[in-house]
Amino acid sequence: MKYKNIPKLRFKDFDDEWEKKKLGDTAQMYQPKTITQSDLTESGVPVFGANGYIGYYLEPNHIEDQVTISARGENTGTPSFVKGPVYITGNSMVVNVDVDEIDKYFLYSSLLSRSLKKYVTGGAQPQLTRDVLNIIQKYFPSLPEQSAIGSLFQTLDELLSAYKDNLANYQAFKASMLSKMFPKAGQTTPEIRLEGFDGEWKEKKLREGLSKIGDGIHGTPKYNDAGEYAFINGNNLVQDSIQLNTETKYVNLNQLTPHDLALEKNTILMSINGTIGSLGWYRNEKVMLSKSVAYLQVDSFDKNFIYYLLQTAQIRKYFFNNLTGTTIKNLGLKAIRNLKIHYPILSEQRAIGSFFSDLDTLISSYQEKINQLETLKKKLLKDMFI
C-alpha cells in the first residue's frame, strides 16, 4: 500500500499513515491574564511573555510544561516550549493538550517545522488569534511515534542549549581575560600574568612595531561578476576571518593596487569605517581592499599579541575617541599609527598570543558544533513532519 500522509524520514518501527487534524480539535487554546511591569517581582517563578522570559512573579499560573505561540509583537507566530512552573502572560497563546493523546514536544516541533507567519494579521500591530489557530491543520502519527520524535528533538535542543551555554561561558571568560591580561589605563603591568613572567611592560607607538600600515582603494574599481577577486569592506571582517556575502562585488586582477598584491599571509585586517575595530586575518584569499579596511603588517611585535591587544576595551575606547566624520564615522590611519601600547618581552607576548589563540580555537569549535546541530535540526524538521 502506498501511503500519502507520511513524512520523508521516520523511525523504522513505524509505518502507519499520519492523520490530519485541525489544531483546535487537538488542543485547548487560550491567552492567560496579562500582568503589568509593576506586578513583576525580584524573585519567584519565571514570567514568560511574547518574546521570552521577562522577570518573576509571586506564583505560577501553569505548573506543567506548556507549548505556546507568540500572539502579539514582532515575534508573533513563534512557537515555544515553556518549562513549568511558570507564569505565562496573555501575549502568548497557550496550546494545551491532553498528554495521553498528544506528545507536547512533538507538537512544539511540529509547529516549528512549518512557519506560522502567514497566519499573522494586523500590519503595524501584528497578532495571531485563536480563531485562526483553531483551523490550522497539522498531521499526527500514533502517540508512540509522536513520543519518539518528540524525544529526539528534545535531546537535540538540550544538546544545543548546552553547547550555547558553554560558548557563552568561554566568550565571557575571554572578555574577562582581555581586561585582566593587558594593563589598564595608567598602569604598566596587567592584573593577571602567565606563570614565569614579571617586570613592567614598556611603551611604544604601534607604528614602531609595524612594517606596513595602510588602507584600501579610495575609489570604485571596475566590477566584474565573473571576477576572481572579492572587493571587501569592513562588514566582511567577521569572527576573525574574511566572510563574503551576496552583496560582495568582484573584480579582475588588473583592478588590484600594489598594496593588494603585496599583502602577506597573517596580515591583520581591521574595519575603519562602519563596524569600527572589527578584525580578521588575511590568509591569502583573493581579495581587493576598500578604503574601509586597514591592513597592519606586524614586524617587531608578536602578531597574535597585537591582534588581541586591539580587542581590549581601552584600545577600542581610544579608537572611538579618535573617530572623524559626522554622519559616517571613520578611524584614520594616523590615529592607529599613534596608538600608544604597553608590551612585555617577546616571549611573554608569544605566550599571551598563544593563550588567546587557543581560546579562540575552542570558541570556534563550539560555534561550529552549534552550526552543525542547527543545520541538522533544520533538515530533520523539514523531513520528519508533513
From TrEMBL:
<protein>
    <submittedName>
        <fullName>Restriction endonuclease subunit S</fullName>
    </submittedName>
</protein>
<dbReference type="InterPro" id="IPR052021">
    <property type="entry name" value="Type-I_RS_S_subunit"/>
</dbReference>
<keyword id="KW-0238">DNA-binding</keyword>
<dbReference type="GO" id="GO:0004519">
    <property type="term" value="F:endonuclease activity"/>
</dbReference>
<comment type="similarity">
    <text>Belongs to the type-I restriction system S methylase family.</text>
</comment>
<keyword id="KW-0255">Endonuclease</keyword>
<feature type="domain" description="Type I restriction modification DNA specificity">
    <location>
        <begin position="200"/>
        <end position="374"/>
    </location>
</feature>
<keyword id="KW-0680">Restriction system</keyword>
<dbReference type="InterPro" id="IPR044946">
    <property type="entry name" value="Restrct_endonuc_typeI_TRD_sf"/>
</dbReference>
<keyword id="KW-0378">Hydrolase</keyword>
<feature type="domain" description="Type I restriction modification DNA specificity">
    <location>
        <begin position="16"/>
        <end position="158"/>
    </location>
</feature>
<dbReference type="Pfam" id="PF01420">
    <property type="entry name" value="Methylase_S"/>
</dbReference>
<keyword id="KW-0540">Nuclease</keyword>
<dbReference type="InterPro" id="IPR000055">
    <property type="entry name" value="Restrct_endonuc_typeI_TRD"/>
</dbReference>
<dbReference type="GO" id="GO:0003677">
    <property type="term" value="F:DNA binding"/>
</dbReference>
<dbReference type="GO" id="GO:0009307">
    <property type="term" value="P:DNA restriction-modification system"/>
</dbReference>
